[in-house]
Amino acid sequence: MKIAVECKSPLLQKSLEIFLSSHLSSLKQCDIVVRDFKALDDDRTFYISKDSGSDLIKPFSKSALILALEKRYETLSPQPKEAFNSFTDGTADFSILEKRIDILTQEYKENILKAVRAFYEE
């Protein structure tokens, strides 16, 4: 999945670039364009806003962003079910799910530690 970021808000632009650093691409070569404004002429637009009609509502977490982008990517380029259900020797390949769980667990752990540190530093 190749993603371009085009935002009017410099803070959101930089945050998205950090969150999506491994997926960034140029505007011409990308699959999805993440924007904080509506662009009706581009089907690849992934709209982030506080509005209920957006693809992702602010505020959001990195994991929520990634999951929403992956869901959008699946709708843009439908792939055969075999690509998602990899079976080898009759067992399912759960490596993608395991990575996702690891990322979510790590993010959750970091948030808990931040909260505990902030509580004891006050």
From TrEMBL:
Name of the protein in its database record: Uncharacterized protein
Classification of source organism: Bacteria, Pseudomonadati, Campylobacterota, Epsilonproteobacteria, Campylobacterales
